[in-house]
Structure formats: C-alpha cells, structure tokens
Amino acid sequence: MNDAAPADRTPTSNPVLRRALVWGALLAGVILVVSAVLGLVFAGVEGLVSALIGTVIAVVFMGITAASILFANRFANSELFVGIFFGVVLGGWILKFIVFIVLVVVLRDASWLNTTVLFLSIVAGVLASLVVDVLVVAKSRLPYASDVQLPKPPTED
Predict the structure, then answer these.
(1) Which long-range contacts (CB under 8 A, 24 or more apart) does 144-149 make?
(2) Element (H, E) at 11
C-alpha cells in the first residue's frame, strides 16, 4: 500500500468544460433574445414568457451536468475521488429529473403559457448546447487517455 500523499492532479477536462459553459451561456443569450422576439411576434406576451421559460430551462439543465463535473473534479486529489465524482454527477442527473417532473406538473395547466413556443425554445436550447459541446470537445486537443499515471518500472534487486 502506498502511504504517500496523492499527487496534485487537476483533471485536463476542466478547461474544456469551462469553455463549454462559457460558449453555451453566450449562445443561450442569443437564443433567449431570438426566441423571445419570435415568441412575442407570433404568440404575444404568452409567447414571450414561454420562450424565456423554455430557454432558461434548457440552459440550466444543460449546464448542470458540466457544472457538476467541474465541482466533482475539485476532489481529484482525494482517495475517494471516484465515489465522490459519480455521486455528484448522478446527484445532478437526479436533481434534473426531479426538477423536470415538478416543472411538468406545475406548468401543465398554465393558461398563460404557449406550449408550442415553450417546446421550440427548449429544443433550440438543447440543440445549441449539443452543438457547443461537440465543437468545444472537437477543438480541445485532449489525448484519448488523459490524466493517466503509468506505474514505475520494477527495479532489479
């Protein structure tokens, strides 16, 4: 058993995740403005409110995963890193699921909501987030196996 303290390891995925969050936020701002204007033009104030709610839902849900991974990566030097990492990420997914169910129940019968505009703005936010993730990861230049430490060669005694 190795009694030495774990080496200071900062996961190489952190800059990629941060970049995805920043670009996702910028693109979400554009989608927010465009969907709000289109919602207002085609469905009035109901469309405007629906577009704003739909875009915020999409952005928050997409950001929770990257943010939870960044948070979990703070424990990379811990011997319990794997358990903490998967616990935090799985907790984020469970949180998204619960919030989604609550939103569906709360917004289901809202008379002030245009469901078509809400749906289209959620889809636009999700598609934009996927495009950002693909482009950021494709340009990240990360090796296939990162953060790997090979064992030291055996010494002959």
Answers:
(1) 146/11, 146/12, 146/13, 147/9, 147/11, 147/12, 149/7
(2) none
pLDDT tens, residue by residue, 74-118: 888 888 888 999 999 999 999 989 998 998 888 888 888 998 999
| Tokens (6 digits) for 33 | 């403005």
Residue from 157, 124, 130 nearest 34 by CA: 124
Q: Distance between CA 106 and CA 97 in Å, rounded? A: 14
Token code pair at residue 90: 């799985």
Separation between Cα atoms, residue 19 and residue 89, nearest integer Å:
19
For residues 91 and 60, what is the distance between their CA atoms, to the nearest angstrom?
Answer: 15
Q: Check residue 139 and report its DSSP letter.
A: T
Here the tokens at position 113 are 């909501």
